[in-house]
Amino acid sequence: MTRFAIKTLLADKGKLLIALTGVAFSLLLVNVQGGLFLGLMDKASVLIDHCPADIWVAHRNTENVDLAHDIPETWLNRIRGLQEVAQAEPYVVGKGIATLADGGFEDVWIIGSDPKSMMGSGWSFLEGTVDDLRRPYCISYDTVDDRKLGAPAVGDIIEINRRRATVVARTSGIQGFMTTPYLFAEINTAREYSRIPAGFCSFFLVRARPGSDHAQLAATIQGLLPETDVHTAAEFRQLSKDYWLQRTGIGVSFGAATLLGLLVGLVMVAQSLYALVLDHLMEFATLKAIGAGSGTLLGVVLLQAVSIAMAGSIVGVAVTLVIAKYGSTPLAPILIPQALLFGGIGVVFTLSVGAALLPLRRLRAIDTAIVLQGGV
Amino acid sequence: MSATSTQLVVSGKGISKAYHTGRIETRVLEDISLQVARGEFVYLVGPSGSGKTTLLSILGCVLSPDTGSLELAGQDVTRLSDQQRTRFRCHNIGFVFQRFHLFGGLTAWENVAVAFRLLGVSGRKAKLESLELLERVGLANRTNHKISQLSIGQRQRVALARALAGNPPLILADEPTASLDAESGLQAVQLLRRLCHEIGTTVVVVTHDDRIKHLADRVLSLSEGRIVGEMSRDARTLLQEADPNPEPGLLASCGV
Ligand SMILES: Nc1ncnc2c1ncn2[C@@H]1O[C@H](COP(=O)(O)OP(=O)(O)O)[C@@H](O)[C@H]1O
Ligand SMILES: [Mg+2]
Questions:
Q1: Dmax over Cα atoms in chain B, in whole Å?
Q2: Which ligand does the CA of B54 lie closest to?
Q3: Is the C-beta atom of A83 inside 6 A of ligand 1?
Q4: A128 and which of A63, A132, A258, A369 could share a cystine (Cβ 3.0–4.6 Å)?
Q5: Which residues of chain A lie closer than 8 angstroms to B95, CB-CB?
Q6: pLDDT greater than 50 at residue B249
Q7: Which residues of chain B have a CB within 8 Å of the CB of A10?
Q8: Is some CB atom of chain B closer than 8 A to the CB atom of A72?
Q9: How many CA atoms lie within 13 Å of B232's alpha carbon, on the beta-carbon side?
Q10: What is the pairing mode between strands A203-208 and A85-99?
Q11: A298 shares contact with chain B (CB less than 8 Å)
């Protein structure tokens, strides 16, 4: 009956196309919405993701890597002596206001690293290197922020909080959740630009010795620095993401949009499969008249549904991958991990096949007598 | 060749049937009893609306009678469930529908193969047997044609081949010549008769086509849901002998 199922499906190209489009569209929507969401959420922890620190020490109740409070650098001495600590450094994520060439203002984050190690500094350099940023009053800027900062060239001077900063490097694709430009510098420069008093910083970045238990070390440090919150990198990453998820509710809005798209696609699938069965009701009745049991009829409909789900998924994945490749920008990155891709296929596939079961009631109630009565 | 054979393929007693549309009851068949022997070629005639198709549907296990009992190929089918009737049809009854009801998306051989597949025959064997059947109905060179590419007469023969698949003991045909011209109508029924005669299949044909009347072993006349007349070949042969100017073809086909 495979032939019957497939050939009957192919006989009506119009409905087939609508059904395939429905599946592909659903899949595309799930993936692109999901990918945009993941891409956006990825920005919430971009500084943590690219920093080699194993443990982040922050002011008590800091909820987010972008929103830090000052802590005294001297506390570092309490943990530097620890056996498991390989490296512990101050780190600044400070806020400044840049004065633009056209006289406008723009909020910026100045990220300051210890000039010896430059831990947590910029990456993806187009021009210049991290080494250029070790020098005082030098900053990098990212091309994502061309529009905001007037696309300064290397060598140009920007004024930040009334102080001159020389652009010595350009990076590509570094942007936080709030889209406020990240300017990387050495720590004293960053402190000065963001008016953090000398002797204070935003975080301590701690690297553990190889083989040590990060959670354990975090607990030890927490004991030594009760005025702070100590997180492993993974914890702090999640904390930063959760903060934006809860504050903005983007999870809900993305989820709702995805669900809606999924629904539209599935209505297309269900509708065209239903119409397909109705169009061929006489053929199904004939099948039953000449001896096809309900199991056989079910098999035919299921096979048709699975074929459509499969072909539609292939098209959907192809289009998704193309869009993810050419439609992803640093401003709106589309991140489609395999889990999302296969999860999406699983959901769309299951729902498509489910939609195909809708006309089954109609099929079961089929009256074989119509075949003999000759009515339509 | 006689209806009095002890080997009955159809044996119905006191069959009646009514349709219900809302509160309106349409009584269609009243107390019908009939017997058809193995290998018999029987016509069911009668005016439009007399209940021929309804009776054929009951004989084909598509409808259940309201009263009475029906035995087909030695099995009591009066009280079978929908599922059981479907299984019974699959193995015991071949249909040639008035409008053929072939599968439009499939080729000629695939249409026949569907019937074999429903019988559980493997795909490869189903194809071989289908091709063989199409050859027997004279469509050896049309096996890969789509239904839409076949003439009405050729479609009729595909339908016939599909009905013959698996050698069912009973074949039912509802107005098989209705959509054919006189010549191909006659040919189609002659073919049906010859093929079924070869393997001893019982055939019940609903028709009001006078041009093919002479081919029947027996004619049952239905009127207002009752069998009002019955005429066997022997009786007609006698009639023909009394006719001073009998049609030559008619006599020849009666073996006179
Ligand atoms: N499904 C049905 N519902 C109600 N009435 C029906 C139905 N099928 C047939 N009838 C009625 O039953 C009578 C006999 O129909 P049918 O068996 O098709 O007669 P025939 O084949 O001899 O023309 C007709 O009056 C017809 O209108
Ligand atoms: Mg009729």
A1: 56
A2: 1
A3: no
A4: A132
A5: 289-290, 371-372
A6: no
A7: 105
A8: no
A9: 10
A10: antiparallel
A11: no
Tell me the per-residue pLDDT of A112-133, one tens digit each, with 9 for 90 and over. 999 999 999 999 999 999 999 9
| Ligand 1 touching residue B52 (CB < 6 A) | yes
Q: With contacts defined as CB-CB under 8 Å, which chain B residues touch A294?
A: 83, 86
Q: Are A233 and A55 in contact (CB under 8 A)?
A: yes
| Gap from B256 CA to chain A (nearest CA, Å) | 35
Percent share of chain A, pLDDT over 70: 99
> Do B70 and B76 touch, CB atoms closer than 8 A?
yes
Among candidates B62, B95, B110 on the partner chain, residue whose Cβ is nearest the Cβ of A369: B62
Cα of A304 to nearest chain B Cα, Å? 14
CA-based nearest residue to A29, from A353, A350, A352, A345: A345
Name, in order, each residue with C-beta under 8 angstroms of B68's C-beta and a sequence gap of 6 or more: B12, B13, B14, B15, B16, B31, B32, B33, B78
Distance CA A272, CA A252 (A): 30
Backbone φ, ψ for residue A309 (5° rounding): -60, -40
Protein residue whose Cα sits closest to atom 13 of ligand 1:
B49
What's the angle, vertex CA A13, arms to CA A7 and CA A19, rounded to 5? 100
Longest dimension (CA), chain A: 96
Alpha helical stretches, state H, B4-151: 52-59, 82-92, 108-118, 123-136
Whole-structure pTM value: 0.79
Type of residue found at A181: P
Gap between the Cα atoms of B103 and B159, Å rounded: 10
Over residues A94-110, mean pLDDT:
91
SS3 readout for A197-223: CCCEECEEEEEECCCCCHHHHHHHHHH
Among the partner-chain residues B98, B99, B105, the one whose CB lies closest to the CB of A7 is: B105
Phi, psi (rounded to 5 degrees) for A34: -60, -40
| Mean pLDDT across A328-356 | 87
The per-residue pLDDT for range B85-120, each reduced to its tens digit, is: 999 999 999 999 988 999 999 999 999 999 999 999
Helices (H), chain A: 2-11, 13-43, 46-49, 76-80, 146-149, 187-193, 214-224, 233-248, 250-279, 281-289, 294-326, 338-356, 360-364, 369-373
Do A355 and A277 touch, CB atoms closer than 8 A? Answer: no
Note whether B251 and B76 are within 8 A (CB). Answer: no
Ligand 1 pocket residue status of B47, Cβ below 6 Å:
no
- Secondary structure of residue A160 in the 3-state scheme: strand
CB B143 within 8 A of CB B107: yes
Q: Give me the sign of the Cα torsion angle A281, A285, A290, A295.
A: positive
Gap from A274 CA to chain B (nearest CA, Å)? 18
- pLDDT number for residue B210: 78
